[in-house]
Design goal:
382 residues, elongated, 16 helices, five-stranded antiparallel sheet, alpha+beta
Length: 382
């Protein structure tokens, strides 16, 4: 994967982390600022009923935080680029020199009273998402000593914009509902499978870290701007929609019988995700109340090897560090020869360690041993 693409995925992933923990927004925006070679990045959400006043705003670490509070309090209303940027199509970031005449801009009140005293000069701005309820705006700023944003700079930043829109939408739903970040959903971050909790409209109100990583890749599975699950292949997307609708219609059920499994193919050619969608009635009642959950989706990535934690295996089953290392790798799907090669030992030594591990765990063969480990707490994510 090209370095630039890896960096973009890292920035996108940080947005999803911030959606779950708002304290991480400055970190995420700092990554975006570094990615776009900006002085700082600034994102804000405006509700349709609030005019210019943002319901949520965040700035990267290096941004002029106190000055930007003044921006939203007064200067935003006289910023000529702000009004011009509102007319841009969603998902588009453009350089300021395409929005307003730069000769007029540097003669104006906004530039001379606010921008210039802070040493600021260039902006790339746009609307990440906008509908009748709310809008998500992004501004990237460079100093007077830096070069203006080019079209290529903006095209690079536009790769990130859909992720920002989705993360901000999830953040907004968390802020407007009774969901508590300290609730029982925190434990779901510790499991290796992806978990997405859906409300009565089929929109995500929570997803764990494993799901966030899969969604950030946008390799077959993603969230719409409103938070619905979507697939890259139209046929898979329709099947996913049907599974969600069925789960929502059966949410009064008491078992997993109402759930549906969908294979979501991946443009990369990797093996398809397995997505199981079920009514939320099979979730704990308190968890349902916390997030207004109506359904949930469990996502399995067959390309991801779940390797149980060696330290937990040792504690749970009384194994030595060498025994637990071998057992952990066996449970992750490695062959005995691969384990031996990795450890720099013979395959006979590996078999001996497995024999001792089976004796300590009272298992009859390797399959029993692997099943025991994979069904234990050793698979929780650190």
């Amino acid at each position: 994967m090209p370095t630039d693409e890896k960096a973009a995925l890292d920035v996108a992933g940080s947005f999803y982390d911030a959606a779950l923990d708002p304290s991480l927004w400055p970190d995420a925006l700092q990554k975006l600022s570094d990615f776009t070679r900006s002085y700082f990045a600034h994102v804000f959400v405006v509700e349709s009923t609030s005019g210019l006043a943002p319901s949520f705003a965040a700035v990267s670490h290096e941004g002029p935080h106190e000055a930007l509070a003044g921006y939203h309090g007064h200067f935003e209303s006289i910023d000529p680029r702000r009004a011009a940027g509102e007319n841009l199509a969603s998902g588009t970031l453009v350089p300021d020199w395409k929005l307003v005449s730069q000769d007029e801009f540097v003669r104006g009140e906004f530039y001379n009273d606010f921008y210039a005293p802070l040493g600021l000069r260039w902006l790339a701005c746009g609307t990440a998402y906008k509908d009748d309820a709310f809008a998500v705006y992004l501004g990237l700023t460079r100093s007077a000593s830096a070069a203006p944003y080019s079209d290529a700079d903006c095209q690079r930043a536009n790769l990130i914009l859909p992720h920002l829109a989705r993360a901000a939408a999830v953040q907004r739903r968390f802020d407007s509902g009774p969901f508590s970040y300290g609730s029982g959903f925190e434990v779901l971050h510790r499991i290796p499978l992806g978990v997405v909790i859906l409300n009565a409209r089929g929109h995500a109100v929570f997803y764990n870290d494993s799901a966030a990583s899969m969604l950030a890749e946008e390799d077959g599975l993603s969230l719409t701007a409103k938070g619905g699950l979507d697939a890259a292949v139209d046929e898979d997307s329709r099947a996913l929609d049907d599974a969600v609708r069925r789960a929502l219609s059966l949410r009064a059920g008491r078992s997993l019988d109402g759930g549906n499994a969908v294979a979501v193919r991946r443009p990369s050619g990797k093996r398809a995700y397995s997505v199981f969608v079920a009514p939320a009635a099979s979730l704990d009642r308190q968890l349902r109340q916390d997030a207004r959950a109506a359904a949930y989706a469990i996502i399995s990535n067959p390309e991801h090897r779940i390797q149980p934690r060696e330290a937990l295996i040792a504690k749970l089953f009384g194994l030595t560090s060498s025994e637990s290392e071998v057992v952990s790798r066996l449970a992750a799907g490695y062959s005995l020869s691969e384990i031996a090669s990795n450890r720099g030992t013979t395959i006979h030594a590996v078999r001996w360690l497995l024999k001792k591990a089976m004796a300590k765990t009272d298992t009859r063969n390797q399959a029993d041993l692997v099943g025991l480990v994979l069904s234990s707490a050793a698979t929780i994510v650190e």
